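#data-curation
PF: Archiving a pair of folding outputs for the training set. Convention for this channel: one message per protein, sequence first, structure tokens after, nothing in between. First:
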Amino acid sequence: MKSYRCEWRGPLGLISGLGIASRAYVRALRRQGVPVSVRSGSLGVNRQAQGPAKKVLICHTLPYRVHAAAEKRRYDRVILNTVWETTRIPMRWKPHMNKFDAIFVPSRHNKEALRRSGVKVPVHIVPHGVDTRQYNPGNPKLRISGAQGRFVFVSVFGFQHRKNPETLLRAYWEEFSASDPVMLVIKTSGYAAYETEAWIKARIRHYKERLRLGRQTAPVKVIGRSLAPGQLRGLYTLGNAFVLPTRGEGVGLPFLEAMASGIPVIATGWGGHMDFLNSRNSFPVSYQLRNPAISMNSPHAIARSFRSLFAEKGQLWAEAELSSLKRQMRKAYENPGLCRSKGQQARQDALKQSWNRSGQIMNRVIRELL
């Protein structure tokens, strides 16, 4: 099979990680010479790819939104491109997964979760990439009042329970005081109209009050609004270390963006990001696998839970150990030279995670499936 044409259905217009990945995969396939048409978004609205007779449909969406049997009458192969964060996929997904000809996932973590959940069709790892030209150590630092002369921890995430904002804040507040020249800068966003920057800041403030820390704590800067692309890139280079004690990631694009920007990552040692994080380029945090409902029911929970997705029977995710996170943050702070060397290694490792590589892998797998 020498050639084929592809239709891509996915969230091309979103500004989230899903949107970034969808656009990047399409561009990567096109750079491989594959004629690709898309349903919507900025990459050629409703443009029909012309060329070979063999047709492939790739659905970058929820599996229950695809009528695979009907699509197979129109396409030679129907492929699901998906991602998941816990040890098992949601039960709502299961009746649909084996109806596809194949499934693309971005990490070993995802492949294991699908196999554990009873998926029998071929599952291929097609990794995410990162644009190392845009995200690089030379980007001008974002100007944050009070950050000069401090060791800056940076974190980028959606304000949801899976990202574990409460453990990040607690570890930082308990480990560092106002006398330490440090700062934590959090770039986050909510999932509903009322989850504004002010709302997020109020949730964090009330959580701090409940902790009754009894001392002046180190400063936290919360950015709960959109940043321009250049500002986001400058946020990474502002940091001395990136930190996120996530409970589960299919990939974790901010980890790749931090690495490409030349700063080391402090992260829970479980999830899709462990395909590219290691002790040479990061500070792994110890963890224990737990049912998500346990932490969701904790008085420490401060963010949207998405309980219906993540707290089903049999699902597990990683709970970062507070003491381990505190040790790794302290280690990074006390060893700026180690941070620089890990950051340099992170940059070198990120250079290997290109979207061109992703396109090459996807193209090769599609040809094998045909």
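PF: Second:
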Amino acid sequence: MLTDPIADYLTRIRNAVKASHRVVEIPASNLKKAITKILFEKGYILNYKFEDDDKQGIIKIALKFHPVTKLPAISTLQRVSRPGLRKYSDANSLPRVLNGLGIAILSTSMGVITDKEARKLKVGGEVLCYIS
């Protein structure tokens, strides 16, 4: 039994990036699908595909690497809020990752969004992770 599926999601991506894999498969959930869409929109991954199997489904993520230097687009993935210690932030004190170069992903009443979108909408929520 997995106690923290988001940490497992981030760890699978982190391990695949370090091993220079092109594709990583992750068990699906609605929250993981929302985070995957944000990673694709912000340019951290090359592509993604949601596949249905008889159980919960699979997310296939194509990782993005620089064509010449072979450096990954994702350098750090850090879990912030965890089951044992939840981290919440209001609209006025949203975190900035690398002075705005990275993103923080939040779970809000408006859905799963980035810190920049949360500032525009003036909503706070649970800070899930930092990505840069």
